[in-house]
Design goal:
71% helix, rod-shaped, mainly alpha, single chain, 3 helices, 117 residues
């Protein structure tokens, strides 16, 4: 004989279903306990589904943050490269007189966007 406490939940479920099919079966306490077990199973399944959805959203948000951080790092690197390229040109900015302008070809060459003529 197998005691109830030694049965798995699947074995108990099978046993309860077979008892409920018997003619004259009626035990209000067993019915209430069975309904509570079924309700708890449904609640656990809902919580599991909700947690899985939370994990998916969390992973997507982490990926978005990583992409944003990567873009920011690239933008900062581009700004620093431009700053370095323009530094020699800007050093002479204060030396310009009214009506004069910087050599555009030299500026482009310094930034690596063209050749100096």
């Amino acid at each position: 004989m197998t005691y109830v406490r030694e049965q798995s939940s699947t074995e108990l479920a099978v046993h309860m279903r077979s008892l409920q099919k018997m003619p004259g079966w009626h035990d209000p306490l067993a019915d209430r306990l069975w309904q509570e077990v079924e309700a708890l199973k449904a609640e656990a399944a809902g919580l599991r589904t909700g947690y899985e959805a939370y994990e998916r959203v969390n992973a997507e948000l982490k990926a978005d943050v990583a992409r944003s951080t990567e873009r920011e790092v690239l933008q900062l690197a581009e700004i620093e490269a431009l700053r370095k390229a323009l530094k020699p040109l800007l050093a002479h900015w204060d030396d310009l007189k009214r009506g004069e302008s910087l050599n555009v070809d030299a500026a482009r060459a310094a930034m690596g966007q063209g050749e100096q003529s």
